[in-house]
Amino acid sequence: MKYICTVLALLALTGAARATPQDQAVLRHYAVMAHAMYTDSLTTARALGRCL
User: Among residues 51, 15, 12, which one has the least CA distance to residue 30?
Assistant: First the structure.
């Protein structure tokens, strides 16, 4: 999952170089969301690991 988020973020940043300011904001938003989902998944996995 970490690598998928990294690839998505890199694609978003690459596309942002050619995008309008509004498009850049949208791409940045999706990159932040992808990172947040990874972080949340990692936190959940660690918590479950401690419970088991």
Answer: 12
DSSP 8-state class, residue 17: T
Return the SS3 of 20: coil
Looking up tokens 């694609």 gives: 11
For residue 39, how many other CB atoms are within 10 A of its CB? Answer: 12
Phi-psi region at 19: left, alpha or beta (left = phi > 0; alpha = psi -120 to 50):
beta
* ∠ CA 13-8-2, rounded to 5°: 125
pLDDT per position as a tens digit, 1-31 = 556 666 666 666 665 566 688 888 888 898 8
Q: Looking at the whole model, is its pTM more than 0.90? A: no
Here the tokens at position 19 are 């995008």
